[in-house]
Amino acid sequence: MAQTLIIGAGITGACLAFALSRRGDPVTLVTAHPVGGTASAASFGWLNASFHLNDAHFALRLAGLAAHRTLQALLPDLPTTWPGCLWYEAAGDGFEAVASNLAAKGYPMQRLTGAKVAALIPALGPVPDMALLFTEEGVADPAILARALIAASGARVVQARVDRLTEAEGKVTGVLTDQGPILADRVILAAGIGTADLLRPFGFSLPMLTRPGMVIATEPLPPLCPLILASPGQEVRQDGEGRLIAPAAAAHQSDSAEVLAAFPVMVSATLARLRSLFPGQDIRFARHAMAMRPVPGDGLPVVGQGPLKDLWLAVMHSAATLAPVVAELLAAEVTNGAESPLLAGFRPARFA
């Protein structure tokens, strides 16, 4: 039975561990960070296919939503919910372009008038003239989800820093860590922004964008936001404890900032936007999470065979949406060679 070593214990590594364990493969996860990851812990957690860079990306993200529902069927206690998303980040021609694109793809949505928006979210201050309700979109906390999947997988977890991959005659043999070597029949890199450094000694350059991100949570509030809200100035959702969860950048999925502003400035600006959305509410900062988001150079996932035999890559943003489907497809590929057409446009070879 092949021994699989997964580098990284965020949502991508966790989904891979679960998918491989269901196929009977023993799995070891190696991480220098808390189980649940760092980028995963700083995720907004919006599960969607409404944001996409091309048709292939849309198809993969749509499959990602279905894969999340499959996980819930297998593990009913997973804390994934499906409140839907109210979207009006663009207006005018931009709004109509998004609506037409998604309608042509058959994406589940409803067009709402301002009156219907006001009835749906009574606490909302500025009400748009028109919005799109994406009825099948959801929310998951990737760090919590990762911990649940790792526990369900039964995978062994090793807390160690991976210094380099080891190889013999062009085949990966394991890793060298600060705790010593770990041998394996195959290695999957789900190490986010750390993946590029591990590949460089083998002549493979994986371009990664510099994309810092921060998400804040407020003190608990009364029910204000029953779904994901994607407004022009702020994306926000409300968790089960009543906290507003908000990225510190507007339209964070397409945010291209390489440097974050000073922490107090970002918090103050985000709170101001939230207070504008929900006027009259006592919205106060409670906590934040910050991480570098693992965004490959062209913004698209990198999934498949690496530069060594039995070395595989799984690097992507947003893994919150994509990790479950990528894990299922990659697990099938590494165990029995079944290549999915869904992954054809996302192979590492495009950067070779």
Q: Would you write up a description of this structure?
A:
The protein has two domains: 4-45 and 143-208 and 297-351, FAD/NAD(P)-binding domain; 85-135 and 212-292, 2-Layer Sandwich (D-Amino Acid Oxidase, Chain A, domain 2), CATH 3.30.9.10. It has helices spanning 11-22, 55-74, 92-104, 114-120, 142-153, 195-199, 263-277, 319-336; strands at 4-7, 27-31, 46-47, 85-87, 110-113, 130-134, 138-139, 156-159, 162-168, 171-177, 180-183, 186-189, 208-209, 212-218, 228-230, 235-238, 244-247, 285-292, 295-296, 302-305, 311-315. It contains eight helices and 21 strands. Helix 1 runs parallel beside helix 8. With 352 residues, the protein is an alpha+beta fold.
List the helices and strands and how they pair.
Elements: E1 4-7, H1 11-22, E2 27-31, E3 46-47, H2 55-74, E4 85-87, H3 92-104, E5 110-113, H4 114-120, E6 130-134, E7 138-139, H5 142-153, E8 156-159, E9 162-168, E10 171-177, E11 180-183, E12 186-189, H6 195-199, E13 208-209, E14 212-218, E15 228-230, E16 235-238, E17 244-247, H7 263-277, E18 285-292, E19 295-296, E20 302-305, E21 311-315, H8 319-336
Helix pairs in contact: 1-5, 1-8, 2-8
